[in-house]
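Can't paste images in this forum, so I'm doing it all in text. The chain is below; anyone willing to post the predicted structure tokens underneath?
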Amino acid sequence: MKNTTMNIKTAITLLLLLSCPYAFAKDTDKPPVKIEQNGENLPKVVTIDELLRIVREKSPRYAAALSSIETAQAEVTAADVLPNPTLSYGRYQQTKGKVGTQFDGPSQQQYNVSIPLLVSGQHGARVDYAERKVEVAESSVEMDYNQIIRETWRLFVQLLAGQQRIALLEKSHQELQQLKDIVTGRADAGAASQYDVLRIQQETQSMATRLESARTDVVGTTGQLGVLLGLPNWKPDVSGALSPLGTPADINKLWQLAEENNPAIETAYRESIAADANIEKAKTERWPIPALQVGTAYTDKPYGLTTYVGVAVDVPIFDRNQGGMARAEAGKHTAILNRELLLASTHQELERAVEVLKRRRETLANFETQVLNPLTTIRQMSEDSYRFGKTSLLELLDASRSRTEIKSNYIDLLIGEIEAELDAMMVAGTLADKAKK
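Text version of the structure:
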């Protein structure tokens, strides 16, 4: 009798150990992703390809976006876990007398184990829904990645343009210095007034101020880039040509690419699939979960042992998961409406981006042929005319200022076309692919 009692107690002890959440816990601790925070190991000068690689490999902002996938994968793990069995123990102890009791010994002890059985497909439906949500999270991360690429590329273009604008203003400042020497020489020779000398000095100082402002703008844009990527201490210079990217302005071709590659459209599609999986999950949850019950009871003095096997199940009279079904159906309807709205708005956005790109491209081409190309000839003519006394200093300064403004406007037009190309590529979903090349 003692051996039998010990065997029962040993079995119960083992069952308790198995049910302990720490008994067979896996070491899921992973080493943290090494993220560059101070920028010491990052290059001081970057091209656009190097910069976009840093976005993928080093940026804390992108790493934070990726963490949402880990969260969704954790839900898959949670859905894949079976419900715990329930262990119950009870002891009946006789007080005074034995009349009317159900056993003859001084006490009776019993153990019962209740094991839930997911026999109606709940387990598979839960896992499938969680996996579909992982796919949604992956597509959402791709959306965030495209946004980061778009903004990173825009700031890169702004930095390139800032460098070119600084070079332009430095050259203009040097030209004014040379012109200042000419004016001073003419004033010494009596061919120019003191007013001309003061006027050219003022213009030269104004250009120096404008140059310093341009340098400050570059510093500010560099700081914006570091903040965007989550690398505030990294202040790189950029290298590359400020030139159009060659994005096609064919609305039909771009829309075909958008339907295949646009991450927002893909996310809406995956949300619709996840909504279907949620409906299937809600359908399986309508069925009650039966529980297999196994137990034993034994008495002392005299020893007696009985076993018990049974099934317990909820009776779905009132709650048949009507609320879960209604929520799942509403979620499906919302997903369909959101996808239809997204398709319409994305097509409209692509039309806008392509139209802007065409106009920007045409404006830039006309500006190059009609305004920018004749600048060299005009400059030489204005300087020669002033040397020979045919024009005044104000006219010469006006010509110099116009050249600077024209070249500055050309830089702005380049920025406008490149940003229009980036907008078109982002809507078409080709921005990330171009960044990986």
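The longest helix spans residues 122-188. Confidence is low (pLDDT under 50) at residues 1-7, 14-33.
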